[in-house]
Request: fold
Amino acid sequence: MHKQFVDLSSYNRSDLAFFQQLKAHGAAGVIVKLTEGSEDGSAYVNPKAAAQIRNGLAVGFPVGCYHFARYTSVGDAQNEARFFVKIAKQFGMYDDTLMLDDAEVHSATDYQAASLAFLQELEALGYKRTGIYSMKSFFTGGILNSHGFGSREIWLAGYGITDLGIDNATAWQYTDHGIMGVDTSYDFSGAFTGLIASGSVPSVTVPAPKPVVHVGHPATGTYTVQPGDTLSGIANKFGTNYQTLAAINGIGDPNRIWAGQVLKVTGQPTTQNTYYVQAGDTLSGIAAKFGTTVSALVLANGIANPNVIYVGQKILLGGQSNAYTVQAGDTLSGIAASHGTSWQALAQKNGIANPNVIYVGQTIQI
Reply:
């Protein structure tokens, strides 16, 4: 029977009694969340990490560390690795500590290259034992190639399955409600439960973060407008018409699109209000634009760090107060009357060139 280990974050307890109970219930190791994002971004450090590491070691667990990845490029991944190492060194983690990349947000166009760059940077900065964690679907769906990470540890998450889908997994997180109600995994290789770190803290100097552009993996079914594009031309490329594109993107004037704009090009108009992040956008700016709050957008979209959004990202706007989704039979004057304003004001605010042309599914800012 393979030994089991648990992984912990700030949502879990950190007291000594908890770790004693974990051990009594069969846990043989622990992986602690240390950081998330980059030093020039969220700069998140798990506030319970120090106590979780200390008490894990106190009961005799091998203790590893993981970083929750938010990188959008190779350069960004290197920055995040440097941040991870900087904090690990501050916590006194030895060079033979198992250091893991929690790569479960498909935020980079070449996610394999960015993830590999993260691990290589960890190793260049003195940590000898590295690995990657992600979902089964990332490995079997072509987002990540498990054989592209060499001999590094491959920790796979898959619940309610019997076939892991890859042949070189070294650990399997089989439940998010296992020992003591926390995430629990099987250790196939002994890397997660068999070695208590006993080396020394790496002496390599951690470089400062390098400036990077946060341009991530665009939402599925989107197109970035190129110089010379027209809405009708884009529609022809994707087998639709300009009216549908205008509707699903909330475009008031079909003749007004710009290079770099991200357009949704699949699907039909719905009553669900969405927005696709453009260059220069901030979450607070989007919230202000649509009459909602940053906290509401964070909740609706599962955004861990409100300071990190990327071009092409799909944002669900939810039930914001000053946006209206056009329904069949609507007119601009009718919408204006029902919201105590004028059609002229709505046309100006929404860039609507012809007030007689609005589309079902179009988002109108009130």
Summary: The chain has a mean pLDDT of 88. Residues 74-90 form the longest helix (17 residues).
